[in-house]
Amino acid sequence: MPKMKTHSGAKKRFRKTAKGKLRGRRAYSSHILEKKSPKRKRQMARPVVIAPQDRKRVRMLLGGGK
Asked: What total number of domains does the chain contain?
């Protein structure tokens, strides 16, 4: 069987940390920023650990196998 390919969109959006956690951009951080507070916008700039519900799907897209 051929190897599974990594999903090109996922590899641009998510990163695996040294301990195996998955990190990505925070939701709601790209537009309609005028009404959001500066504190909220600052916090959105930092990457966030992917929610447990989405981990399996993201790992598969990054070539995590089964």
From this structure: 1
